[in-house]
Amino acid sequence: MALIEFTKRGIYCKQGDFYIDPWWPVDYAVTTHGHSDHVRFGNKHYLCHTLTKPIIKRRISEDLNVETLNYGENIIRNGVSISFYPAGHIIGSAQVRLEYKGEICVISGDYKTEDDGISDVFEPVKCHSFVSESTFGLPVYKWQKQEVVFNGIKSWVNDNIQQQKTSVLIAYSLGKAQRLIKNLAGDVPIYVHNSIANLNEVIIDAGVNLPETIRITPETTKDELQKGIVIVPPAMRDSRWIKNLSHPVTGICSGWMQVRAHRRWQSADAGFALSDHADWTGLMDAITATGAEKVYVTHGFTAAFSRFLNDEGIESEEVMTKFGQEDDEENKVDLADAENHHVETENKKSE
Amino acid sequence: MKRFSKLIQQLELSNKTNDKIAALVDYFNYADDKDKIWVIALFTGKKPKRPIKSALLKYWAIDITQTPEWLFSESYSNVGDLSETIALLLPPAENTSDFQLHKWIEDLHDLEGKDDETKKGFILNAWNHLETQERFIFNKLISGNFRIGVSNKMLVNALAKQSSLDSAQIMHSIMGKWNPYEITFHELINGVHVNTDNSWPYPFCLAYALEQEPEKLGDLSEWQAEWKWDGIRGQIVKRNGELFIWSRGEELVTEQFPELHFLIDVLPDGVVLDGEILAVQDKQVLSFSTLQQRLNRKTINKKQLEDAPIGFFVYDILEYETRDFRDHPLSERRAVLEQLFENLDESAVILSPVIKCKNWKELADLRQTSRSINSEGIMLKKLSSHYHSGRKRGDWWKWKINPYTVDAVMIYAQKGSGRRANFFTDYTFAVRDGENLVTIAKAYSGLTDKEIKEVNSFVTRNAIEKFGPVRTVKPELVFEIAFEGIAESKRHKAGLALRFPRILRWRKDKKAIEINTLEDLRQLLESTFING
Q1: How many CB atoms lie within 10 A of CB B355?
Q2: Terminal-to-terminal C-alpha distance of chain B
Q3: Which residues in A lie closer than 8 A to residue B134 (C-beta atoms)?
Q4: How far apart are the C-alpha atoms of B86 and B135, rounded to whole Å?
Q5: DSSP per position, B373-412
Q6: Under a CB-based contact definition with an 8 Å cutoff, are residues B225 and B354 in contact?
Q7: Percentage of residues in chain B having pLDDT higher than 70
Q8: Min CA distance, B522 vs chain A (Å)?
Q9: Which of A93, A30, A21 lies closest to A322, judged by CA?
Q10: Is A88 helix (H, G, I), strand (E, B) or coil?
């Protein structure tokens, strides 16, 4: 009997009686990482990686009932062994390995195979069945080495500073923002939006080594920002705050920026193809390395990717989930950000 | 190629005209003269010789990447551009190249007539020397157009800024007939070629749509009102015993319209006429669908000539007695035109009539009858106006009649291409026919980005079936479709076809049961007269 089934509430392990990243409230939710399409409010118990705990407590509620595991550690629930392995997606992201009577299933959540310098590096895990995302499951999505992309961003920033423009990078506040901070830190000071600064605090408190950034406050001058790098979450994109900066130019960091049509659609001034999801090569390498006999393909180009796997002789099936949205998984507005943003504007009004 | 590649990148990065002009000026300041010629050629739609079919590029890319064809198609439908899809699919290049743009174009040109193996060898080697962005451009040189939001006007402004020459002169020069393989940059922007060339046309003067009450334009006596005809805007050039017919797309179409060739004996030398190519019988304008039978054909047979006779309705005169006449006021140009046509009694070439009215009200009433003569409204031109190059606000207005509309339900959606790849933006609409729905139009324009996102999310959630990139969706969203005409059609299941359908608005207030019926459209069809 299969170790997991796909139900209305989410991925369910019947033998162990728990869910992985459920989208409706359940008793016991195993959580791959802290993005809001993978962890929701209302579960009685959460099990996640040690670094994810403070993140979800901060983003969802301090009252969550959370158990944690480190990578490689396991607990037994109703005879099913649950253990975590690095997924390389964001800080604390984990692949969930389930083992029951010799049958092994790995639910990878979101993952990427390249070392981003801040998340623990993806580790392939041998298994019988594997649940893979396919956000970028088309062969036109093959990333350049992140060093190349970051050099591109750095030279864009330097040009902007010289031309008296303010560089504003739009990045998801959990994950992409920290990756940018880690890899762009240097001579140019980095200014971050409140929601990012808040998460940074949590992450630094949890013991992650994150370079120093400056929280943007009403006292921060336009001149300072013009000479630095400004990082804000997607919710701020079209905000008046950005428009009021000194000659602002926006750059979006997302895998979708690989394609011209998406760059133009986003109407940003610059697009950098930098993703926390595996590219085509990464997906294929990861799947091959698991040696899985059966691959379930969730969010992304599920149909095409799953068909390709079947043609390659790897049995595969596409599965409907509520993870991601095919079109703008990476750019969607994080609710937590939107709320913070809202609160901020409220505060400003009352000032 | 690196410099050109960077230019394209800069042009794509900004939405601001000033940034684009700055990037172009910067390019023209530093690029090789031979490259500049090609950049002007490419941006104005002059394609270099294309020795290789794009289908071959696709197969070679499939071949060396070992990509299944269906997966290539899926990728293409996501990326929305063939050249880019290939550029992204290929493995990273192992070498780099310092070849300049014109060198690549010349090398491609030299492939003409070579066998496929030689061509393949050249292309694969090129791909292996170019990085992704350069590859994209290289592929575009072979198979596509550079649609990157650089208008002729923008290009001309940049050239004028860089060369300190007059922009109207440059516009004239680059719009004329020239061969990028032969001309030098200096010759081109100084217009050396245009005086020696008998055929060159003038840039068309274009009108803006009138969005205010016509009364606000002042006294009617300062304006010339004409019918706005729905055909192909054209220019007839007669110089040194030669006759040329240009279409608005800057295309020479002389051969397509033999009915107009008699003008070679009638018109004096040194005359250029602006007008509309239309289907005309007994001096009456026929519908656009009749004209369509005559468009884009390499050869014309007798039946087509009989079924869809062509005529030219003359609007204006741009050159007279070999002199550029565009700086004379419209009232003078019209007088000359009327004199020129005084003795001409031909059913194929007709001076487009001036509408005489006492006041705006009378004109407005007359406008409502436009459709009865297959006109799409009224043109208002200031009598004192010069013939401008391109669009200039204030002197010429088009005052079109409101389009026909129909409420229809969306039943298929397809992802767009280009900027809209990855969003469902191309929709097929149906009206009711008894219990069934029958498709009547496909349209993709007319919604805001926000609405497109909303419809997109509806399609994702309500897709019933997939056929490749097409989704069948629950018939639920009702749209008001505007169109310019209706004609019988054997090709369409509904038995009729709408002309220029587009989405007027999303009728969120209407349910699918409230949409129009096929019978409604049939009645409309029957009520439209002169059906050609």
Answers
A1: 16
A2: 52
A3: none
A4: 8
A5: GTEEEEEEEETT----SEE-TTTEEEEEPPPEEEEEEEEE
A6: yes
A7: 95
A8: 39
A9: A21
A10: coil
Indicate the residue of A140, A263, A265 with minimum beta-carbon distance to B89. A140
**Contacts of residue B229, Cβ cutoff 8 Å, sequence gap at least 6:** B276, B278, B285, B313, B352, B374, B375, B376
b vs e for B368-381, b when ≥16 Cβ sit within 10 Å of the residue's Cβ?
eebbeebbbbbbbb
A267 and B13 in contact by Cβ < 8 A?
A: no
Q: Is 90 exceeded by the pLDDT of residue B362?
A: yes
Q: Tell me which chain B residues have a C-beta less than 8 angstroms from the C-beta of A139.
A: 65, 67, 71, 75, 89
Q: Which residues of A touch B136 (CB under 8 A)?
A: 260
Q: Which two tokens stand for residue B427?
A: 């929709």
Q: How far apart are CA A121 and CA B113, in angstroms?
A: 53
Q: What is the pLDDT of residues B36-70, one digit of tens each?
A: 999 999 988 777 777 898 899 999 999 999 999 99
Parallel, antiparallel or unpaired: strands A129-134 and B470-473 = unpaired
Span B224-237, average pLDDT? 94
Who has greater pLDDT, B398 or B13?
A: B398
pTM equals 0.69
For residue B134, the model assigns a pLDDT of: 94
Residue A177 has pLDDT above 90, yes or no: yes
ipTM greater than 0.90: no
Q: B477-492 pLDDT, tens per residue? A: 999 998 888 888 877 8
A325: chain B residues, CB-CB within 8 Å: 460
B102-151 residue pLDDT tens: 999 999 999 988 999 999 999 999 999 999 999 999 999 998 777 777 87
Q: DSSP assignment, residue B220?
A: G
Question: For A327, which of B75, B419, B423 is closest by C-beta distance?
Answer: B423
Residue A27 DSSP one-character state: S
Question: What confidence score (pLDDT) does residue B298 get?
Answer: 64
* Per-residue tokens: B110: 């030299």
Task: Give me the long-range contacts of B170-179 (CB less than 8 A, separation at least 24).
Answer: B171/B203, B171/B389, B171/B390, B172/B200, B172/B202, B172/B203, B172/B389, B174/B40, B174/B44, B175/B44, B175/B200, B175/B201, B175/B202, B175/B203, B175/B250, B176/B200, B176/B201
Catalytic residue among B36, B140, B228, B381: B228
Mean pLDDT within B239-243: 88
Q: Report CB contact under 8 Å: B88, A264.
A: no
Asked whether the beta carbons of residue B460 and residue A326 sit closer than 8 angstroms, the reply is yes
* Residue B505 distance to chain A (closest CA, Å): 21
Encode pLDDT of A187-211 as tens digits.
899 999 999 999 999 999 999 999 9
Alpha helices in B128-243 (DSSP H): 132-143, 152-163, 167-175, 185-190, 192-196
For residue A348, what pLDDT band results from cuts at 50, 70 and 90?
Answer: very low
- Residue A61 pLDDT > 80: yes
Question: Please, where are the H alpha helices in A9-88?
Answer: 52-59
Alpha-carbon distance A261 to nearest alpha carbon in chain B (angstroms): 4
Give the chain A residue nearest B74 (alpha carbons). Answer: A304
Put residue A37 in one of left, alpha, beta given phi > 0 → left and psi -120 to 50 → alpha.
alpha
Give the Å distances, CA to CA, from B229 to B207, B286, B484: 13, 10, 12
Tell me the residue length of chain B: 532
Q: Return the pLDDT at B531.
A: 39
d(CA A140, CA A301): 12
- Distance, CA of B132 to CA of B87 (rounded, Å): 5
B157/A272 Cα distance (integer angstroms): 30
Q: What is the overall mean pLDDT for chain A?
A: 89
C-alpha distance from B418 to closest chain A C-alpha (Å):
5
